[in-house]
């Protein structure tokens, strides 16, 4: 997977931002419709709306994504590492994963809402389940690929099974786990948006809810403010994960 | 130190049992070195893994220091060709790993690691990751790591085969120095005749798989770095080469 690194941030990223804004402006000018305002107008509204209650929606949505990712991470990583190392267990788990992984779990949204209600639990549960599978499969495959020789050499130093996980399996899987997390982030935000538009109780319902409200009232500027907010959330989380990877996997960036 | 008698070992390949070693017997006294050489696939690495307690054997007896071989014997050090170091740990963390795993105090771990790394001339590279080290430096870290455990038995599986000739000779000299200083027992699996003759007091030559002992040579003249240039060295190399060629 090609990775956009922040190393060239000042020049390349500024150019990219200018390019995208220009594209937006041109599209808006060409379309010349009220429902497609240009970047300048949208950013003004975004700043204005953030001063009212958009920030609260943004905060709620971000909290949901972060909570869901965090909730899925630990069980997926632990199970993935164990299945990758214990082939006997994996023989039973593999068919289960194989059959359930490709099922688009978003189709269970109505069922999940019926079971868990319109509150936080249904959204977080659904996002977690989807992300769980992505991280699980990646971690298991990474854990399988850990070289036998590396494990043997640490075993020969007297390591127990837990120490093998701590010193060999976990660090070997870590870069792949973080990549999975970055890919899952996009999925998580998409599922979040969808579930916020369907499952909400009004009030501070999150960006998805905010956007649907703006759309239904034909408040196009507010709708674009929400698009900007969602984009900023995704970008900020992505940058955070990239920073985290540099922080915890320094050997990957030599 | 090592007593092997009637050893037989098999591994599974494509659901079929393949005999790797058959009727292998030899003994090695404390403080002796022994080089094991033979064609690839002769089971010499299998033998090393059995001595390290990482593989189980099918038949025969294997004793290390008078006791039946068992996994995780604390005084056995295993040095492999490539896989020994963990890429996510710095040279110092890699060197410290053995003591850390055995639960020694932080201070003790650090002091011992510093001593071993200084001995091997790699202390200045302590904060480098393996990917930032040359092949020779990496193998020095692997050796430093085993030295921290104060082993009485060194098991080495083609430890220098991926190094260039000059680095290899310098590491062979280092190893010889350590052997003379610490008087530990060494078993070295190699496919280099010169390495076997330079480092092995006894040279055990294996047949192609299933591995059997073809011949054992005593190589009493080894023991100093100048041996490489002496006529006895070349004579011994020729003898080993002759035996291998005739055996195939």
How would you describe this protein?
The complex is a heterodimer of chains A (254) and B (248). Chain A is an all-alpha fold and 254 residues long. Helices cover 80% and strands 0% of the residues of chain A. Chain A is built from 9 helices and no strands. In chain A, helix 8 (207-216) packs antiparallel against helix 9 (220-248). Chain B has a 6-stranded mixed sheet with strand order 6-7-8-3-9-10, with helices on both faces. In chain B, strands 2-1-4-5 form a 4-stranded antiparallel sheet, covered by helices on one side. The model of chain B has no long low-confidence stretch (mean pLDDT 89). The chains are: A mainly alpha (254), B alpha/beta (248). Chains A and B meet through helix 6 and helix 7 of A and strand 6 and helix 2 of B.
Strand arrangement within the widest β-sheet of chain B reads 6-7-8-3-9-10
**Number of separate helices of chain A:** 9
Number of helices of chain B: 7
Computed Rg of chain B: 18 Å
The share of residues in helices of chain A is: over 70%
Cα-atom radius of gyration of chain A: 22 Å
Task: List the uncertain runs of chain A.
Answer: none
Would you state the CATH class of chain A? Mainly Alpha
From the spread of the alpha carbons, the general shape of chain B counts as globular
Structural category of chain B: alpha/beta
Uncertain runs of chain B = none
Order of helices and strands of chain A: HHHHHHHHH
On the 0 to 100 scale, the average pLDDT of chain B is 89
Helical fraction of chain B: 25-40%
Distance between the termini of chain B: 31 Å
Major sheet of chain A: none
- Element order of chain B: H for helix, E for strand: EEEHEEEHHHEHEHEEH
Q: What is the strand tally of chain A?
A: 0
Q: What is the molecular shape of chain A?
A: globular
């Amino acid at each position: 997977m090609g990775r956009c690194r922040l190393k060239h941030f000042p020049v390349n990223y500024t150019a990219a931002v200018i390019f995208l804004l220009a594209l937006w402006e041109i599209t808006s000018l060409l379309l010349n419709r009220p429902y497609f305002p240009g970047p300048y107008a949208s950013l003004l509204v975004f700043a204005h709306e953030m001063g009212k209650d958009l920030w609260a929606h943004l905060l709620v949505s971000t909290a949901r994504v972060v909570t869901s990712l965090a909730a899925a991470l630990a069980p997926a990583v632990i199970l993935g590492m164990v299945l990758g190392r214990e082939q006997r267990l994996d023989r039973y788990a593999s068919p289960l994963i194989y059959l359930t992984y490709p099922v688009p779990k978003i189709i269970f949204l109505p069922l999940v809402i019926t079971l868990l209600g319109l509150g936080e639990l249904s959204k977080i549960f659904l996002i977690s389940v989807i992300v769980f599978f992505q991280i699980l499969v990646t971690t298991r495959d990474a854990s399988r690929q850990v070289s036998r020789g590396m494990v043997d050499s640490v075993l020969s130093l007297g390591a127990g099974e837990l120490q093998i996980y701590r010193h060999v399996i976990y660090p070997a899987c870590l870069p792949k786990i973080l990549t999975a997390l970055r890919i899952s982030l996009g999925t998580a935000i998409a599922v979040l948006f969808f579930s916020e538009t369907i499952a909400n109780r009004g009030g501070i319902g999150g960006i998805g809810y905010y956007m649907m409200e703006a759309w239904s009232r034909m408040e196009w500027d507010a709708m674009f403010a929400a698009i900007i907010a969602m984009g900023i959330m995704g970008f900020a989380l992505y940058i955070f994960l990239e920073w985290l990877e540099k922080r915890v996997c320094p050997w990957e960036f030599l | 130190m090592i007593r092997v008698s009637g050893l037989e070992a098999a591994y599974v390949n494509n659901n079929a049992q393949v005999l790797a070693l058959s009727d292998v017997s030899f003994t090695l006294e404390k403080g002796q070195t022994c080089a094991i050489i033979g064609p690839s696939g002769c089971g010499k690495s299998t033998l090393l893994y059995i001595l390290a307690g990482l593989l189980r054997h099918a038949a025969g007896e294997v004793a290390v220091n008078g006791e039946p071989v068992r996994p995780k014997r604390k005084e056995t050090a295993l040095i492999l060709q490539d896989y020994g170091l963990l890429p996510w740990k710095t040279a110092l963390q890699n060197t410290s790993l053995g003591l850390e795993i055995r639960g020694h105090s932080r201070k003790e771990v650090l002091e011992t690691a510093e001593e071993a790394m200084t001995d091997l001339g790699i202390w200045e590279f302590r904060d480098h990751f393996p990917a930032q080290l040359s092949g020779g430096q990496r193998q020095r870290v692997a050796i430093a790591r085993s030295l921290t455990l104060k082993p009485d038995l060194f098991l080495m599986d083609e430890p220098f085969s991926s190094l260039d000739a000059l680095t290899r000779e310098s590491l062979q000299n280092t190893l010889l120095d350590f052997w003379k200083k610490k008087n530990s027992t060494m078993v070295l699996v190699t496919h280099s005749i010169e390495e076997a003759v330079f480092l092995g007091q006894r040279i055990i030559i294996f047949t192609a798989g299933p591995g059997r002992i073809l011949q054992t040579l005593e190589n009493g003249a080894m023991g100093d770095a100048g041996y490489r240039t002496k006529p006895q060295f070349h004579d011994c190399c020729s003898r080993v080469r002759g035996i291998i060629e005739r055996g195939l």
